[in-house]
Amino acid sequence: MRSSTNTEIVIRTEGLTKHYGKVRAVEDLNLSVGRGQIYGFLGRNGAGKTTTIRMMLALTKPSDGYVEILGNRMKPNAVRAFERIGSVLEHAGSYANLTVRENLEMQRDLLGLRRSHWVDEVIDMCDLGEYLDRAAGQLSLGNRQRLALGRALLHKPEVLILDEPTNGLDPVGIAAIRELLKSLSAERGITVFLSTHILSEVQQLADRIGIIHQGRLIEEIGYEELRQRNREYLEFAVSDTKRATWALEETCGLHDFVVREENGIRIYSDFERANEFNRVLVEAGVAITSMRMSEESLEDHFVKLTGGSNDQEAAPETQPTRKRGMQR
Ligand SMILES: Nc1ncnc2c1ncn2[C@@H]1O[C@H](COP(=O)(O)OP(=O)(O)O)[C@@H](O)[C@H]1O
Ligand SMILES: [Mg+2]
């Protein structure tokens, strides 16, 4: 679902902070997720994702700030909220020597739920049908992850919170999880918050991505940007976007472009016709203040923002604060 201004906020963190001694695992984190949205929480190893998610689920006590989910302040006894939240933490374990079916039944019992069609639906949604009698311990990583998701869905949660659900999966496994989460969001309106350290795993999935680095949310990227950012483009800054749109469409027969804020026209194809576009725009009475080709992919951007090394430990106290604009 795309974000809109009057979406109900389902997850909100306010000044959320966790310090472990001198390690600032999470620092003044403010983010919000609207109903039905898929929020990708992206950061390198050690950026603070798991700590944030554990605070969301009241498994770790914040040093400061708080988390509100579905209007409830998250505390270990926030039973009303937990009834409406499903979660899968990193290395989520099912009972290895029980079968898939037994694991699901056991979870259902634990939750005090009656046998229902819903269990079958979950089995269906998570594509577990052919593995029902297989011991969980013998499943592939992808199937194990789907079982964990299935268990998290048994009580029909409105919110799903997932820590690196695609970690270690092969491309097929990743795609399966992606399709499942998409359909949960689109067809059932479930709000999904998931963390990952790999941009491409959420780029085609999330409505919004928040980049966390050394405990801080350093940038948020919205739906349109996510879809367009990885495409090469040619951008004109023009005096009049309406007139420019008309000229490009009518005179050049060009449709693969978008109008951006602040007088930008971003063209995604036909780059070799740049001179022609230039001329047509000028002839149509449009002043051009700049023309440039895209420079970096979103992946480049992410790597640049979060540094090149593989593991990124949290910032020591002396680390300078890094603030970034959210708008581009
Ligand atoms: N229980 C803990 N005690 C001390 N430091 C911790 C603890 N948990 C996490 N950290 C530190 O907090 C930082 C963030 O860790 P984490 O939230 O696990 O990152 P991520 O999930 O993004 O990889 C890391 O520097 C990590 O070493
Ligand atoms: Mg983690």
Q: Your description of this structure?
A:
With 328 residues, the protein is of the alpha/beta class. Among the domains are: 9-84 and 157-227, 3-Layer(aba) Sandwich (Rossmann fold); 231-293, Alpha-Beta Plaits (2-Layer Sandwich). The protein has 11 helices and 14 strands. The chain has helices at 49-56, 79-82, 100-110, 117-125, 141-153, 171-188, 200-203, 223-228, 241-250, 274-283, 298-306, and strands at residues 9-20, 23-34, 38-42, 64-69, 72-73, 85-88, 159-162, 191-196, 208-213, 216-222, 234-238, 257-260, 264-267, 288-293. Strand 9 and strand 10 (216-222) form a beta hairpin. The protein is elongated, with a radius of gyration of 23 Å. Bound molecules: adenosine-5'-diphosphate (ADP) and magnesium ion (MG).
Q: Helices, strands, pairings?
A:
Elements: E1 9-20, E2 23-34, E3 38-42, H1 49-56, E4 64-69, E5 72-73, H2 79-82, E6 85-88, H3 100-110, H4 117-125, H5 141-153, E7 159-162, H6 171-188, E8 191-196, H7 200-203, E9 208-213, E10 216-222, H8 223-228, E11 234-238, H9 241-250, E12 257-260, E13 264-267, H10 274-283, E14 288-293, H11 298-306
The protein binds adenosine-5'-diphosphate and magnesium ion.
Magnesium ion binds at residues 49-50, 90, 163.
Give a short overview.
This protein has 328 residues and is of the alpha/beta class.
Index terms:
alpha/beta, Alpha-Beta Plaits, 11 helices, 14 strands, disordered C terminus
